[in-house]
Each structure stands twice: as C-alpha cells, then as structure tokens.
Amino acid sequence: MSAEAANPVSAAETTGPDAPGRRRARARIDLRRLGRAALLGPGTRDRLPDAIGHVAEAHRAHHPDADLAVLRRAYVLAESSHRGQFRKSGEPYITHPLAVTLILAELGAETTTLTAALLHDTVEDTEVTLDQVREQFGDEVAYLVDGVTKLEKVDYGAAAEPETFRKMLVATGNDVRVMSIKLADRLHNMRTLGVMRPEKQVRIAKVTRDVLIPLAERLGVQALKTELEDLVFAILHPEEYENTRALIAENTGAGDALATIADHVTTLLRDAGITAEVLVRPRHFVSVHRVRLKRGDLRGSDFGRLLVLVGEDADCYAVLGELHTCFTPVISEFKDFIAAPKFNLYQSLHTAVAAPDGAVAEVLIRTHQMHKVAEAGVVALGNPYTPPASADGGETAEDGERADPTRPGWLSRLLDWQEATPDPDTFWTSLRADLAEDREITVFRADGGTLGLPAGASCVDAAYAQYGEAAHSCLGARVNGRLATLGSVLNDGDTVQLLLAHDTASGPSPEWLDHARTPAARIAITGWLQAHPDTATAPAADPRPPASHAADRSSGTRLLADLPGTRAGAVRPAGCCTPVPPDEITGFLVRGGTVTVHRTGCAAADTMRRVGRAPVTVHWGDTDACRVTLVAEAFGRPRLLADLTEAIAAAGVAVVSATVEPPTEQRVRHTYTLQLPDAAGLTALMRAMRDVPGVYDVSRAQHPASPDL
C-alpha cells in the first residue's frame, strides 16, 4: 500500500477544502500532527531523549497542573523494557506506546490513563510483571494495564479476537478508560498496517469496521472514529477511496463558498451581540464519499461544514435563531441533540441554511465544552472515578463501589450480558449485532424510572432490561396506558408498564425470540429454553390459527330419554352447552335416532323449537360422572395453555378437547371440553382455573351451535 493510502486522514486534511482565513486550531483534533520525527526527537534510534516531552506538552495543554513525574518514570520503564524490540515497520517498539499515549494526550486524557498507555504492552511483551507495575505505579494503573493487555500481538486467531474484546469488556466493567486505551492502540496499529500482507490488512480492517469503529462511536470519541473510518475505507474500498481522494484534490478551492458564508455568519453574530467562534470544518474522506452517494454531484459547500462555538447552552439557540432569520433554513436538516443528547453523550444543534447564491451550508452549533466531548467523548471527561467530596471535605463512596457517571446505558447492558455468553462465537455475533444498533430510545417505566433501549426494541426487551431473569414470568404490558402484546415495538418517550405473573415458575415462549432485539433478552430467553426443553415447545398465546384436538364424543354421564325405541348410548349432551348434573335439561331427536341434550335456555335449543322440533323429556341417571365445556378468558402469555391444563389435571379431570383462539388486544380465549369424575367438583375446578396467573374469567360454554336437523 502506498504511503498516501496508508494515511488517508492525513491526506484528507491536506487536500481538503482550504478556505482563506479558515481557523483550524479547534475545529478538529488532528491526531497525526506529531509524526515519527516528533516522537523520536533529535536523537538516534537508540536514544529517545525528547520523546516524552511531546506527550507532556500535549498533556499540559489540557491539564496545566498535571504532575508529569509519573509520566517520566513510566516512560523510563517502558523504554528500557522495550529496548532492542522493533516493530515490523522497522521502528523501535517504544514508538508504539508513545504514539498511543500521544493520541490520548491530544484527546485530553488524564495522567493515570496516559501512564497506563505508556505501559500497556510491557507486561505482555517484556519481562516486566504486573506486580512490578502495581508496586511502582499503584493499583489503578496496574488494573488498566491488565485490562488492555492483548492475548496475542497482531495475528489474532479465529477465537482470539472475540476473547480479546471480552477481556476488554470485563475490564471496562470497572473502568471505562480501558476501552479508550484499546481504541488508541488499534488506531496506531491501523496507521502502520501497510507493512503487513494484504490479506491480513483486510482481516484486521474488517474487525476494526465491525467492532472498534462502533465502539468509538458509542464512546463519543469522534476524533478516533473518523480516522479509523478513513483507514478502513482505504483498505477495504481502495477504488472508492482513490476516487474520493482525487475528487478532494480537484476541489482544493472548494472551501471558498463556505468561507464566504462563515464570514457572513461571523458578522451577523457580532452585530447581534453573540460571542461566537465560526470555523470551517472540512469533511473527512468517508464523509465526502457518503455525501456524494446521497447528493450526486457536489458543490463547494458540500466539502465541509460550519462549526459555531459559543459559551453557554442558551447561546446555541440564539445562534440558531439568527441563522434561521437571516438565511433560508433547510428544515429537514434540523436536529436538536442538546435537548435530547445522543446515547454517546454527544450534544449539538444541527441545521442547514441556504445562502442567497443557492449554496447550502450545514451548520453545527455547540458550546466549547460540548465540542470537547463531541471530539473526545468519555476521554475528555477526566477520571470518572474521583469520588465526590463530602460536606466535611472528605471523600464518599458507597459500599466501596466506584460509580461511573460517564458510562452510557448501552455499555452497562453490554457488560450485563457478556458474562452470560460463554461461547466465543455467540459472544462475537451478539457483540456485533448490539454495536450495529446506531440509535437509542428512552422509555419511561410506570414507577417513574427510565430504560435506555436500542431503536426497534420491543416490550420483551424492556421486560428483561428492567427485571432481568424475573421477566421470564411476564404476562403482557401496557404501553401508554393501553394493553399491548409483548412483541409491540416501543417508540422514544413511550411509558411502559410490564405485567408479571405471581407464579415465578412460568417461562418464556420460543416466539419471544422473534421480538427480542437486545442480546440481554435473547441470551436470557435462549438460556431458559435450553434449560427447560420439555416446556419450551408448549403452545403459547401468540397469533396463530385456532388449533383443535379431536374429541371423544362419548360421555361418562348417564342420560335417559323418555322416548320409546331409543337405543343405548343414543342420548348425549350437546357440545354447545355441555350440561352437567344438576342442570335443568331438555332433549331433541336428531338424525340417526340420537337425542341431544341441552341446558334449558340454550340458544341452540331455542332454535330447535323455532324450526318445529318437539322436545323430548330427558333426565339424569344415577352416575355423578359428567362432561362439561369451559371457557377460560385470560391475558395472553407464554405457557398459558400448559399452566391451565396442569391445573385441570391436578383436579383429576381429563381433557377431551381444547381450542386456543388467536388473541385479540392481548386477550385470549381457551375452550376446554372436560370429563369430570364427579359433577360436584365443577365449582372447585373453575376456581382452580381462575387462580392460574393471567386468567380473569372462567365460565360454562354458551356459544351458539347449529342444530342437528
């Protein structure tokens, strides 16, 4: 690979739109500003006297009062430990930890993170032990170093890469800075990937695309994300990359249009009394490529965006008002990520305005602090584990646990389910699927709390997010006050109330997997189904065609008819009302010489009378056995049929037939024809069926039936 192809971001910065008077200092963090010469200093390969000075300078720019002594000690240990080791590019190996540390220093990482970054390969690749690191630099640095120690150097095996990221996620569970160091480590490896075989470049680039770039996006580290995107773009799509590079090179003066608009905006805001810094922000390679795919031929203003930085949140909206007043706004491009921040802590106002000459400029409006977080994400927030000061000046901590205010909800969920996924392939697949979700919604719980879920999540996902494995007994949900199925997709801002059964022994249905979007829900459901193979296949109350079981038409109840010539067994209870002793009954002679017996008042019996059938006097015999049809109405849930039939069996009653109707508005109807050994047990049976979780009524069948003419 050419040097230019191996360094697409550097090329993007030098060949992008170059507007006269454009302010670059704070528009985008340039992680490549210090090259190999800056890292090595004026000395030879065997002597690196000034290398740590560049890291210290970048660190002091963000933390003026930082204690640099620990960085110098870490550098001495790292340099002496890696002395004699070289990278495949031919550079001394110490240039790698230095580059990783410099990346993080440019992003504003605090001293402990930089110390760990300098030492992150010493335990793996040298004779330095973790105990030595702990002894010299403390438990916190040792923990970070251990968290980012790779299982293999560069050539990851099929299972090694998933296990590397599993280790990283486990460590991140206690310290989010581990992931920041890992991202910087991969970025520098990607910068120097050109010395490897093409097939290895492609494999590493694909892993970076599928996992590392989404992780950088979710941590809000846009400076890392954009450079990784361009590096991957150059390797995986060389032709499109070259076309984009040529397009940018042909439009070196394209920034003039944006510069003109920037000058106009600067004057406009100054006249309005708003203190603001207006910058022209060039697009990186992948961004230009995406815009070209979306818009076709590009105009000069399409090669960059305007960035307006102000002091306070209220100033952001003041700038927006001035822009929409003095320019023609493109309403479809407006997004407010200040009032509703993105899941990765990103805050900004997005809009687009049209100049009088028709040029359209996209504008980002944010405060200086928002810009810092937008570029560096959680790295810019310092040490998230510094305990807050108590009223008496001491430090407070709850049960010795360190609270992480910077860890987004998605990361908490990721850490919750990764421990439950022992298989590396399953873990890898679930990780990639979770990271592919690029938008998050917030739903409100009935108790006033909130749940962060990926877009497209259902009530099933909400149940497991709120209750964990206790969600196995979920019956249904109310969304915004209305009954909803567990498969209902939730929208941002919905209020969800989850309905749980009192019987914690019940479990999910296989159909729940069709509605589960989050790995936490899918893993929990799959685990339960694997642990209960016999019950996992039980029919659930989900939409499906009615399923009926063949019924034995004979009855154990003795019915007698006062009709001469009636043969034995020719008197049977009607299926429409299934009378049982001591119901008042009446009979009708039908085809074949059979007498069907109905309860008095049955609609079918009334129909028989209307068509002219003469009733036959019938009465009960001397046996207590009987057959009855009961209708159970319930809220639909998995295992409802299994639980009802279990309650029926516990009462010593045989099921002759059962019909499950499709649910309507989360309500489901089960119809059972039952053979009772004693009619006196009917009341107790109906009570037992009503006690099944989710069942709200059990009644005798009253459905109409066609008369046997």
Mean pLDDT: 74
Unreliable stretches, pLDDT < 50, 5 or more residues?
Answer: 1-49, 150-160, 387-408, 536-556, 703-709
Radius of gyration: 36 Å
Helix content: 40-55%
Could you say which structural class the secondary elements and strand pairing correspond to? Answer: alpha+beta
| DSSP helical segment count | 26
**Shape, please?**
elongated
For the largest beta-sheet, the strand count, sense and barrel status come to: 6 strands, mixed
Distance between the termini: 88 Å
The strand count comes to 22
Give the percentage of residues in beta strands. Answer: 15-25%
Could you list some keywords that capture this structure?
5-stranded mixed beta sheet, elongated, disordered C terminus, 709 residues, alpha+beta, disordered N terminus, 26 helices
